[in-house]
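Postdoc handover notes: sequence design on the structure in folder B. Input C-alpha cells:
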C-alpha cells in the first residue's frame, strides 16, 4: 500500500506527463494572434472629410442637367456624368441643386423631401431617413472598390457606414426644414436602369434664402 507521500509523487508525475505535450499560451498572446474584425465605422470616418466630401464637391453636376439626360439614355448619361465600378454595375451620379420644398414625407421611416427644381417638370426626392435606401454614396466613390475588401459583407458594411455618416451630417438641417423652405443640396443617386425610382442620398443639405 502506497504511503501518502507516494501517492502525491505519483500524482505529480501523471500531471507532468499529461502536460508534456501541451503548449502554454499567455492570454495576451492569444489576443494578439486573433484576427481583428473589419471596423466599417473607422474605415468610413477615415475617408469622410479628406476624400468623400472633396470628391462630392468636385464631381457634383447640376441635377437639372443630369435627370433629363438619364431619362433620355442612362448609358449616355452615365458616360457623360456618372461613374460605375464595372460593366453591368449601377451607374452612380453625384448631383447638386437648389429648389423649394413642396412636401416633407415622414410617415414612413424612409423619409423624403420633395423638391421643386427650376428646369425640371417633376419634383426631386431627397432621402432624409432615418432609413436610407441603397448604397449610392459608396457606389459614387471610385476610391472605394470591392477588390479592397475581404468579402461581400465587408463591402456592404462599408457602404452602410458611409451612408450613416451622410445621414448624420444632414439630419439636423432636415429636422428644421419645412414645406415652403428653399434648400441647397448635394448627393448621389445610383441607377441600374432608367426606370428605377430616382432618390438622392444626401451628403449636404442647407436651408437657403428665397
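Designed sequence:
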Amino acid at each position: 500500500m502506497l504511503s501518502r507521500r507516494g501517492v502525491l509523487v505519483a500524482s505529480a508525475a501523471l500531471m507532468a506527463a499529461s502536460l508534456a505535450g501541451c503548449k502554454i499560451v499567455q492570454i495576451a498572446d492569444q489576443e494578439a494572434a486573433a484576427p481583428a474584425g473589419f471596423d466599417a465605422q473607422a474605415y468610413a470616418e477615415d475617408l469622410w472629410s479628406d476624400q468623400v466630401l472633396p470628391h462630392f464637391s468636385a464631381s457634383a453636376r447640376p441635377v437639372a442637367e443630369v435627370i433629363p439626360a438619364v431619362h433620355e439614355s442612362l448609358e449616355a448619361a452615365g458616360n457623360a456624368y456618372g461613374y460605375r465600378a464595372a460593366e453591368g454595375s449601377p451607374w452612380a451620379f453625384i448631383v447638386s441643386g437648389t429648389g423649394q420644398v413642396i412636401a416633407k414625407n415622414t410617415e414612413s421611416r424612409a423619409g423624403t423631401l420633395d423638391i421643386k427644381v427650376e428646369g425640371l417638370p417633376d419634383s426631386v426626392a431627397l432621402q432624409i431617413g432615418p432609413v436610407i435606401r441603397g448604397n449610392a454614396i459608396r457606389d459614387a466613390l471610385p476610391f472605394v472598390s470591392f477588390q479592397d475588401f475581404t468579402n461581400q459583407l465587408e463591402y456592404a458594411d462599408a457602404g452602410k457606414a458611409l451612408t450613416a455618416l451622410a445621414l448624420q451630417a444632414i439630419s439636423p438641417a432636415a429636422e428644421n426644414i419645412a414645406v415652403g423652405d428653399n434648400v441647397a443640396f448635394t448627393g448621389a443617386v445610383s441607377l441600374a436602369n432608367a426606370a428605377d425610382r430616382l432618390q438622392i442620398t444626401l451628403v449636404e443639405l442647407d436651408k437657403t434664402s428665397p
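Context for whoever picks this up: The chain has one domain: 38-208. Don't rerun without checking with the PI first.
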